[in-house]
Specification:
This protein is an alpha/beta fold and 264 residues long. It is built from ten helices and ten strands. The chain folds into two domains: 133 residues, Cobalt-precorrin-4 Transmethylase, domain 1 (3-Layer(aba) Sandwich), CATH 3.40.1010.10; 112 residues, Tetrapyrrole methylase, C-terminal domain (Methyltransferase, Cobalt-precorrin-4 Transmethylase, Domain 2, 2-Layer Sandwich), CATH 3.30.950.10. A five-stranded parallel sheet has the order 3-2-4-1-5, with helices on one face. It has a five-stranded mixed sheet with strand order 6-7-10-8-9. Strand 2, helix 3 and strand 3 form a beta-alpha-beta unit. Helix 8 packs across helix 9. The longest helix is centred in the C-terminal third of the chain and has 18 residues. The model has no long low-confidence stretch (mean pLDDT 92). Pfam families: TP_methylase (PF00590).
Length: 264
């Protein structure tokens, strides 16, 4: 799939390549069970990449190569990392960051090469960097094709029993205890008033601290769900009222990525 730029040059396509959800986990899921064969075949033929982390991208490509030979050896793959500030402050100049211009990253696509955008886990540009690259591709006339694969937020929402017709992802909660408590109460009020499920995540080593804050500050009848290790053999998905969590239920560990959700 390609289109012509104003100069007449046929462009490549930007593929959004999902990655398995086992990044940072103690165990890995069999790749062929976590992603469709069509996604893996498409990824195997790409040689130009924009990624969150080059080391993680190469490790992922090595796993793909074991199933479908890569079109170019790992050392010949053209892999470009997004700037580190994009990881911390977002793609679009929010939270005090200067606006990031991703257009130069698409130079290979503008001369006809298909490209892949990949993050460390799940779908790029969803709860991960990359949306500015996608926007720049649209602006440059580069076709954008999302490939099928796991999206942790949607898997967690589906397994939560909470409202899947009205929901929001709110990213990370504040680290400061007082600010975090205030944010928890704000999200709970929104969830209870509008019936809008609130989804959020945390760096794994802070899981336990966030969990204790949720049990402390949420109302007893509010429903709280967690989903960790999704797609892995040891996956855990549980959903119950806060009062029930307070009586029994183990906190998430500090090693495995977790999606938290609250609602009614």
């Amino acid at each position: 799939m390609s289109e012509a730029t104003p100069s007449g040059q046929r462009t490549g396509t930007l593929y959004l390549v999902p990655a398995p959800l086992d990044f940072g986990c103690d165990a890995q899921a069999p790749l062929q069970e976590a992603l469709p064969d069509g996604t893996l075949r498409t990824a195997a033929r790409l040689t130009h990449w924009v990624c969150e982390n080059a080391k993680s991208a190469r490790a992922y490509l090595k796993r793909i190569d074991a199933l479908h030979p890569l079109a170019a050896p790992l050392q010949a793959q053209q892999i470009t990392e997004l700037p580190r500030e994009v990881h911390k402050k977002g793609d679009h100049g929010g939270r005090g960051a200067a606006a990031f211009d991703p257009a130069p990253l698409l130079a290979p696509a503008l001369v006809g090469h298909d490209m892949g955008l990949v993050s460390e886990a799940g779908m790029p540009a969803v709860a991960d960097p990359g949306s500015s690259v996608v926007r720049a591709a649209h602006d440059a006339g580069v076709p954008v094709v999302p490939l099928v694969g796991p999206v942790s937020l949607l898997l967690a929402l589906a397994a939560s029993g909470l409202n899947g017709q009205n929901f929001a992802f709110t990213g990370y909660l504040p680290q400061d205890a007082a600010e975090r408590a205030q944010r928890i109460r704000e999200l709970e009020a929104l969830a209870l008033r509008q019936g809008q499920t609130q989804l959020f995540i945390e760096t794994p080593y802070r899981n336990a601290a966030l969990w204790q804050a949720l049990l402390q500050h949420l109302q007893p009848h509010t429903r709280l769900a967690l989903a960790s290790g999704l797609t892995l053999a040891q996956a855990r998905t549980e959903s119950r009222a806060v009062r029930q969590w307070r009586q029994h239920g183990a906190a998430p560990d500090n090693r495995t990525p977790v999606v938290f959700a609250i609602g009614r």
